[in-house]
Amino acid sequence: MYYDKLIFEISTDNHVGYSLPQSNIKPHTLDNTFLRDDELYLPEVSEVEAVRHYTNVSFKNFGIEKGFYPLGSCTMKYNPKINQDISNNPAFHLHPNQSLNTAQGNLEIYYETQRILSELSGLDAFSLNPYAGAHGELVGLMIIKKYHADNKDTKRTKIIVPDSAHGTNPASASVAGFDAIEVKSNEDGTVKLKDLKAQLGDDTAGIMLTNPNTLGIFEKDIIEIAKLVHEAGGLLYYDGANLNPLLGKVRPGDMGFDIMHINLHKTFSTPHGGGGPGSGPVGVKAYLKDYLPNPQIVKEDDTYTLKTNDKAIGQISHFYGNFGVYIKAYTYLLTIGKEHFKHIGQNSVLNANYIKESLKDNYKLPIKAICKHEFVFDGLKDKSSGVTTLDIAKRLLDYDVHPPTIYFPLVFKESLMIEPPETESKAAIDNFISVMKQVAKEAKENPDLVKNAPHTTIVKRLDEASAARNPRVKYRDLL
Amino acid sequence: MSKIKEGLLYTNSHEWVKVEDDFAFIGITDYAQDSLGEIVFVELPEVDMTVEQDEELGAIESVKAASDILSPLTGTVLEVNDDLEDSPELLNEDPYENWILKLELEDKNELDELLKPGEYEDICE
Predict the structure, then answer these.
(1) Are residues A469 and B35, on separate chains, in Cβ contact within 8 Å?
(2) Closest in B35, B38, B65 to A465, CB measured
(3) Nearest Cβ partner of B63 from A410, A413, A465?
(4) Cα–Cα distance between A420 and A423 in angstroms, integer?
(5) Most A CBs within 10 Å, among B35, B36, B40, to test the A interface
(6) What does the pLDDT look like over B66-103, one tens digit per residue?
(7) Which of A113, A118, A163, B87 is at 20 to 30 A from B99, Cα to Cα?
């Protein structure tokens, strides 16, 4: 059933959700200067009307709990309900200013999460404080900057970023006050060593890399890259966006990285994409430990306490960041357990390669190598019908599949970037493959059906250009 | 097949240049507008701003991507096409008629580095 109401539209005069007893306190009248000119318009609904409204609205949403969600570079894995149950426990809901001896349990969760992330990543110390991935990048770059400044090495102003990197990398470098220098990639998105060598010098502050890269290909030369960058006096920053396939198998610290961030909301199964706040912990090798943001949570004897460090880059969050997210990630870490982490990497890689090989006769596969957790098609193999990647994405909605990432990375004209996380069963993956084959078949036999998709959704093909050019963002404009 | 206009000079990054005495009009090519898709916003440079060749002059956002406009030449911005602020779609409708800015040239020798229509056509293939 099509539900298109706003809460204001179902408002009826004098409908209330509950009634309170008559107050025996005399009303206090505010001075006119503090009052609104016109009365505040609030919807008036009963409890059941409010509940029905929001339940109906929720049916219009598509999320990981409704269907397959192969959004490249986002690691849209299912978030187990136990994470939510534990974080909802009121015992954890403390005031950030209460005394530390009454918050030992929460501090233990913070400390233990840091410790497990260290073990998984091969970096010696962590701070969970950054609020999200890009915030983690900024913190990491501020550490690089402070480290060089403390060594009186202030001519190091350049951060090298491959042209296939995530867009946030050069942006973060710029915000941190560095010049972002682009290094060319090979066809499969790996770093061109010759180009890298030409860029390195005594002005190199560091390099930012994702491994596997945006095309899902493992950077085989990483040991050589680390050696070159270190010899030039620069540091290596690992963007944790693509950490999922490496879990329990390979550690960024062992590859030679000095600093990294982790997206708890991707790799460690806390909700994202409108479902909850992010969290971007930053890890460093031991020699950079003192630069981590304040406050640092440490264990002294058997007590958890806060430490502020003069060498630190400063404080970068209110209190301790998004604590609710740490509870969910910590629950996930313990639920999976040390010995099973490698299965996450293995299964996400298997899923991606299985889809890639199953669809390569229908979709153009520019990089044929074994991929890690994700890969990129360059549109349909047979483009003669004029059906584009956008049309395919829209048609997938008719089959209850969330479209993959489209038109990114920019190295191909019709990119379709597919990441099927480890939480999907073979049946779910097979269903996706058959839907993709069906769409390719339709594109050939009945292209207009695909070009005009979606047909079964509440709203049909949106006019994205008008929505961006003349956005209508007030509900009254929509009525 | 995208249109390439005779009498203009081109860049690898899909800008066109129309030279008139010591000035040049600069815009984006048909290939550029077609690749970007429906354009929703054009960030214009400030008048009187000086730019180096290949430096960022502004940006174009479409429903698909955001892309920088790189200055084909060194010079000073004399005028910008204000119509694009309210009607960015003009670049989709006629990319060669709707110039983005007018530049006062500093070094006419730089013109030799730009591509002729035939050379630009090779890039677009």
Answers:
(1) no
(2) B38
(3) A465
(4) 8
(5) B40
(6) 889 999 999 999 999 999 999 999 999 999 999 999 99
(7) A163
Residue that the structure tokens 């187990």 belong to: A80
Residue A418 phi, psi (nearest 5): -110, 125
Between chains, do B65 and A464 touch, taking CB under 8 Å as contact? no
Render the burial of B81-105: b for 16+ CB within 10 Å, e for the rest: beebeeebbbbbeebbebbbbbbbb
Contact between A469 and B88 using a beta-carbon 8 Å cutoff: yes
DSSP conformation class of A473 = -
Sign of CA dihedral A158, A159, A160, A166: negative
Count CA within 13 A, CB hemisphere, residue A442: 20
The distance in angstroms from the start CA to the end CA of chain A is 20
CA distance A463 to chain B (A): 10
The shortest CB-CB distance from A469 to any of B35, B40, B65 is to: B40
Instruction: Yes or no: say if B39 and B29 are a contact pair by the CB < 8 Å rule.
Output: no
Name the phi and psi angles at A414, rounded to 5. -125, 45
At position A150, the amino acid (one-letter code) is: D
User: Residues of A with CB below 8 A from B65's CB?
Assistant: 407, 410
pLDDT tier, A474 (very low <50, low <70, confident <90, very high otherwise): confident
Other CB atoms within 10 A of residue A129 CB: 27
Cα–Cα distance between B40 and A453 in angstroms, integer?
22
Are both A94-336 and A341-467 of the same fold?
no
> Which residues face B9 on adjacent strands?
B17
Residue indicated by tokens 């958890």? A304
> Which of the following CATH numbers is that of domain A94-336: 3.20.20.140, 3.30.470.20, 3.80.10.10, 3.40.640.10?
3.40.640.10
Indicate the SS3 state at residue A390: helix
Domains and CATH numbers, chain B: 9-108 (2.40.50.100)
Domain over A341-467 is classified CATH 3.90.1150.10: yes
Residue A163: name the closest of A209, A223, A232, A221 by CA.
A209
CA distance B122 to B125: 6
With a cut of 90, say whether residue B123 has pLDDT above it. Answer: no
- Quote the pTM value: 0.87
Distances (CA, A) of A356 to A300, A396, A433, A443: 50, 17, 9, 19
Q: Where are the domains of chain A?
A: 1-60, 94-336, 341-467
A465 touches chain B (CB under 8 A): yes
